[in-house]
Design brief:
Blueprint (H helix, E strand, L loop, with lengths): L1 H27 L1 E6 L2 E6 L4 E6 L2 E2 L1 H32 L5
Antiparallel strand pairs: 1-2, 2-3, 3-4
Amino acid sequence: MVFDKFKQLSELKKMRDQAMAIQRQLKEERIEVEESGVKVVMNAAQEIQSLEIDGQENHRVLEVLNKALRRSQEVAAKKLQEMSGGLSGLLGQNQ
C-alpha cells in the first residue's frame, strides 16, 4: 500500500513535469494579428507581448489586458477544479 502511494506521487510528478514542459513550449509560440491599425503580439500561453495602436505602443492597455486574462484563467481553473472534484466523488474516489 505504501508502494502505491509512492507510485501515485511519481505519476503526479511526471504529470507536473509534462505540464511545465508544455507551458514552456506555449510561451515560445508567437501569434501576431494586425488589423485596422491595431497590432497584437502574444504567445500561446495567452500572454500579450505587445500592443500597438496606429504604430504607438500602449503599455497601460497591455497591462490591463494581461491582468484580465490572468483573472479569467484563474476563474476557469477554479471551475475545472470544482468540476473534477465532483467527478471524483461520482467515481467513488476520495478528493
